[in-house]
Amino acid sequence: MVKITDVARRAGVSPSTVSYALSGKRPISDETRRRVEAAIRELGYRPHAGARALASSKSNVLALVIPLRAGIHVPVVMQFAVSVVTEARRHDHDVLLLTQEESEEGLRRVADTALVDALIVMDVQLHDPRLPLLRILDRPSVLIGFPLSPDGLTCIDLDFRAAGEACVEHLARLGHRSVALVGSPPEVYVRQTAFAQRVVQGFTAAADRHGLSSAVHPCESGPGAARRVAEQLLREQPALTGVVVHNEPLLEPLIDAFEQLGLRVPGDLSVTAICPDELAASARIPVSSVALPSAEVGTRAVELLMRKLDEKAVPEATLLPPRMTERASTGRRTIA
After folding, report:
1. Hey, which residues does 213 pair with through a beta bridge?
2. In this model, does residue 231 exceed pLDDT 80?
3. CA–CA separation, 111 vs 109, rounded Å?
4. Strands lying side by side in the sheet with 141-144
5. What band does 185 get if pLDDT is binned at 50, 70 and 90?
6. In terms of pLDDT, which residue wins out, 28 or 218?
7. Which residue, 189, 167, 198, 196, is CA-closest to 325?
8. How far is CA 39 from the centre of its chain?
9. Please, which residues bridge with residue 334 across strands?
10. What is the distance between the alpha carbons of residues 250 and 244, in angstroms, rounded to a whole number?
11. Does 212 have pLDDT greater than 60?
12. How confident is the model at residue 55 (pLDDT cuts 50, 70, 90)?
């Protein structure tokens, strides 16, 4: 790793002179500046974030705010994080990952320092208490998620309401008349997490539109929870033939539970999901699903933020349409 002392040695100056050339805090001659800049290019020296901040009044660091709250499926969250970090590096920015519960005070603490230039905020709630502060901060922000009132904010996400509708539309086209949504853990709904609420809205609206019998069941993750919710569904909806799963860890355990209870997938029961494509495609019975486009969402969130940092206009709302892929877990309703 090239150090500032290496640059100083190559340029024939002191390390403090290199620092002054980077920061602009003290005047140096044009000839000295050219020698320092040439040494930096030859050695491939990259000043750390603090030095860049002194030179440009910017840190070239983005904050990614991901509170790892109860009920959050960390592997999926990390897919978003990886896409944000990858795209940020393309724009010569680093990412500061904030995983604690960052309330208004926490966000202000980060924004009031020179640590970050801008923020990407995840796990957005319908009535998110962070929104008033985000609207007035002197740091630009992008939300991955849509609160109930997104005015004055820049938001991007999958259209989760349309995703819930798409799953029901797929089952309705196959002739299913009794459907259920197995959703996120209960605490996700208690917090009124926006994406989970919108899936329920879309699922319910589409079921009502098609005159389907329907029910929504929040569910903890894990094989034991899968067995319990499968038994409850068959007890409460004996005519059930279609299930939508919006709970990634539960997908395969739920299929296993139904089969242990004597139902064949898709012969007796069709299963769809809203989840990452690779999870649906690699299941023991590949699952018809609406893809969770974490890579695209993360990439476009950074692109929006870069435009805002350049003081360019951006759309307030970017909703990605759902993409349904039909696989082996769904089939036409069997009429006895």
Report:
1. 178
2. yes
3. 6
4. 94-98, 61-65, 118-121, 141-144, 155-158, 317-320
5. very high
6. 218
7. 167
8. 41
9. none
10. 11
11. yes
12. very low
What are the beta bridge partners of residue 273? 245, 289
Percent of the chain with pLDDT over 90: 67
Give the CA distances from residue 167 to residues 29, 57, 202, 205, 331, in Å, rounded to whole numbers and listed in that order.
67, 48, 9, 12, 13
Give the residue from 162, 175, 164 showing the smallest Cα distance to 210. Answer: 175
Average pLDDT along the chain: 89
Check if the beta carbon of residue 95 is closer than 8 Å to that of residue 117: no
Other CB atoms within 10 A of residue 238 CB: 8
Handedness of CA 296, 184, 262, 179 (dihedral sign): negative
* Residue 64: predicted pLDDT: 93
Residue with tokens 């569910």: 219
Q: Which residues of 273-290 are buried (b: 16+ CB within 10 A; e: fewer)?
A: bbbbeebbeebebebbbb
pLDDT(52) > 80: no
Give the gyration radius of the chain's Cα atoms: 25
> Residue 284: what pLDDT?
95
Helices 15-23 and 30-43 pack at an angle, to 10 degrees, of 100
User: How deeply is 186 buried, as exposed, middle or buried, from its count of CB atoms within 10 A (0-12, 13-18, 19+)?
Assistant: middle
Query: For the residues 5-29, what does the mean pLDDT come to?
Result: 79
Alpha-helical segments (H) within the chain:
4-11, 15-23, 30-43, 49-56, 74-90, 104-111, 131-136, 160-173, 186-190, 194-209, 223-236, 251-260, 277-282, 294-309
- 63-74 core/surface letters (b: 16 or more CB in 10 A; e: else): bbbbbeeebbbe
Task: Give the pLDDT confidence of 240-249 residue by residue, as tens digits.
Answer: 999 999 999 9
CA distances 92 to 198, 230, 297, Å, are 35, 49, 19
CA distances from 242 to 62, 77, 109, 224, 322 (A): 43, 27, 48, 21, 19
